[in-house]
Amino acid sequence: MTASLNDHASRIAALRAEHGSNSKVGMVSGNFNVVHPGHLRLLKFAADCCDILVVAVNADDRLGVLVPAHLRLENIAAISYVDYSFIIEDDLATAIDAIRPDLVVKGKEHQEFHNPERDALAVYGGKLLFSAGDAVFSSIDLIQAESERPTSNFNLKSSANYLNRHNIKGEDFSAILDRFNDLSVLVIGDLIVDEYITCDVLGLSREDPTVVVTPVLEQKFIGGAGIVASHAKGLGAKTSYLTVCGDDHEATDSQKKLEDYGVDVIIARDPSRTTTLKQRFRSAGKTLLRVSKLKQHAIDQVLQDQIFDHFKAMASNLDLLIFSDFNYGVLPQSLVNRISAYCLEKRIPMVADSQSSSQIGNIARFEKMLLLKPTEIEARLAIQDHDIGLVAVAEALAHKCQPEHILLTLGAEGTLIQTTHPDNSKWMTDRLPALCSSPKDPAGAGDAMLVSASLALASGASIWEAAYIGSVASGCQVATVGNRPLSVDEIRHELGVL
């Protein structure tokens, strides 16, 4: 049954209530036989002028209509700027009176003609705006396609030589992934919000040789240890996440998103810090500038005690603890030592990643882990040697902090795997090439590898099997822009074990 105008007005009123009492509703109407760039520019302009964009698609009996209304409505509803759309059976003035938009937007070509919307808006103080349709706006949907997960596959390569060397078969992967559902995992570490601001380039400034851009689309993703926890949940494990962050809307919004992902979230609020926000300004698939808003001081003893108490309350049911450290003060050494000592006593497997910025950070401070996952630079910082070969780097790091396994990530060169020989007499080493040949965004690759390889190890996989699963997960992550939780079905598809 077709919804009435009152039904549409009620739904739009509910949207306004969700956005807050001061939110603005904008409205655009038209035939929209074929959605072309002019429409997209008009809708982008309207969306920038309001909080909620409503589009009324004219019914089939209107002048100039060529395509059935339900098809035109589908096209409009699929456009990312549009918050609500409907087929308008009534005249436009009646619809405006029922919906009471704060503004109505039309193309500037209508400015010199009679506009019946003006009288309807004047009754309650609404405004009529005209868009010039400037060509500085890209299609939002083309931009968003860059960050969408592929619907079929990620076109990852495989490494038959590696699989043959270690006698790994597809059915081995299937059994390992099945066991992810039995795991209970706790992730501890920094919450980071990654914001991608996609821009159109306007040109060079006339005052100085500076590139001038205008933002087109802003997207926020959960990052840091938050995405590690989200990956773990997406891969099937029962997942809890423990962190410290600011008492701000970024933390509140992130908590809701994490809970929507199914993660059990415990946040200790620290009013002395803001939640870490990393902004990337991008254009034409390239990052122009990165801006980080963060605090790096260590949390105080009161917060450390809170984190440790929360950890102890969950420890009895844990199969795996993941330290995801970004060296912004959430995991001071004293807290790491307390948690590690407790885990070693209770035989809870631990894994760690400690991402370093410049000369800050030391992954070797995480001792006796089941797995460490440093980059080459992070490993060299930990051992303070920038000259020796890669295998020697991994061995030196192993001697320093005694992990069972190391995945030394090398970017486009893949991953160096270092593990103890079964008789503990020596180290064994192998290299796995990068499986994604056309990465779009390297951010989050290490997080995806860490969590997937760790879950595999906790499920009884060998380090060779775990490293391969981690490389597949990393390849899936870098094939899109921005962090989104992995799913076990994606990994199965790329491993060919669906």
From TrEMBL:
GO MF, any single term: nucleotidyltransferase activity
Domain called Carbohydrate kinase PfkB: residue spans: 185-484
Record's keyword terms, sorted: Carbohydrate metabolism, Kinase, Multifunctional enzyme, Nucleotidyltransferase, Transferase
InterPro entries hit by this protein: Cyt_trans-like, PfkB_dom, RfaE_dom_I, Ribokinase-like, Rossmann-like_a/b/a_fold
Superkingdom to which the source organism belongs: Bacteria
Domain Cytidyltransferase-like: 28-109
Pfam families for this protein: CTP_transf_like, PfkB
Function: Catalyzes the ADP transfer from ATP to D-glycero-beta-D-manno-heptose 1-phosphate, yielding ADP-D-glycero-beta-D-manno-heptose.
Protein name: Adenylyltransferase/cytidyltransferase family protein
